[in-house]
Amino acid sequence: MHAITIPEPGGPEALVWAEVSDPVPGEGEVLVEVVASAVNRADVLQRQGFYNPPPGASPYPGLECAGRVLALGPGVTGWAVGDAVCALLAGGGYAEKVAVPAGQLLPVPKGVDLVEAAALPEVTATVWSNVFMVAHLRPGETFLVHGGSSGIGTMAIQLAKAVGARVAVTAGSPEKLARCAELGADILVNYREQDFVEELRENTAGSGADVILDLIGAKYLDRNVSALAVNGRLAIIGLQGGAKGELNLGALLTKRAAVTATSLRGRPLHEKAAIVAAVREHVWPLIEDGVVRPVVDRALPMADAAEAHRVLESSAHIGKVLLVAPSAGA
C-alpha cells in the first residue's frame, strides 16, 4: 500500500507519499481500506517532529478516517467485511489501509457521504468528551468556543446549540464569523478587533461563560478565567498560544470555577472506546436527523497532503480539510 511518510521532520514538503508495508490487524482490531482522512493540528505537530505517535500506533499521520472494512482481526464481533465505517485513530489515517481497534470504529451515519464521514470522528469525540462528559454543558448555559470556524469549532457550535446552550465564538474575520452564525452561534467576537472577555460580559449581563472550550492555551489562560461565570468550567484542548501560563487561583476560587486539560490521542483504549460509544449514542442520532452536519472546507488527493497542511497552517479554511485516498475513485 501507499502512505504519507515523514522521512525527516520539517515543513509540508517533509510529507512523502511512498510505498510501505500493509498493516495486519491484531487481536481486537479491524483492517480498514481508507477512502478519506482529515487533517488535524496534531498531524502538523507530528510532521514538525513535536508530537510522536503513542507506542504501538502507526507511524503515519492521520487521527481519523472513513472507509470500508477489509478484514477482522481475532476476537472481533459486530462488524463485517464491506461495512462502511469511520474511525478514531492514534495514527495511520494518511494511508490506503489502517488497522483500528474495534472500539474506535463507528458506522457511517445515514445521510452522510463516505468521504465526508472522515470529517467526523476526531471532532465529535473531542467535543463530546470535553464539553459534555467533562465540562457538563447544560441547556440554557453560555458556551464559548475559541476558533469557532475550525473543525472543532464548527462541530462544537452545532452540538452546543443542539442541547439548548447559548453559543459564543471567536474567529479572525467577518467571513468566518458569518459562517459561525449560520451554524447557530449567538455571540460573534472578532478577536483581531474585540476583547472576548468584554464581549462576553456585555452579552451575558456580566455573568460570563459557563463553559469555555479553548485551543489556544497559555496566551488565553488569564483572560479565559476572567471570562468564566461563577461555577464556570474551562476545558483546554490545545496549546497554539503556548504551554506555560500564570493561573490566578484567587479568581478561580472566587468563581468556584474549574480548569481541565485533556488530550485524546494517547488515552488508553478502553477510554477511547467509552468516548466513541458515547458519540455513537448521543451525536450520531443528531447527525442522522440533520441537526448536526460535518463542515468540510475542501478535499484534496491524499498524495497532496503537503498542500493540505499549508492550507491548515494558513488558517484560511472553515471546517475540515480532507484527504481523499485513491480508493475513493474505485
Automatic annotation (TrEMBL):
Signal sequence, renumbered to the chain: none
Organism domain of life: Bacteria
InterPro entries with a match to the protein in the record: ADH-like_C, ADH-like_N, ER, GroES-like_sf, NAD(P)-bd_dom_sf, Quinone_OxRdtase_PIG3
Keywords: NADP, Oxidoreductase
Stored Pfam families: ADH_N, ADH_zinc_N
Coiled-coil intervals: none
NCBIfam families xref list: quinone_pig3
Protein name: Quinone oxidoreductase
UniProt organism field: Streptomyces griseus subsp. griseus (strain JCM 4626 / CBS 651.72 / NBRC 13350 / KCC S-0626 / ISP 5235)
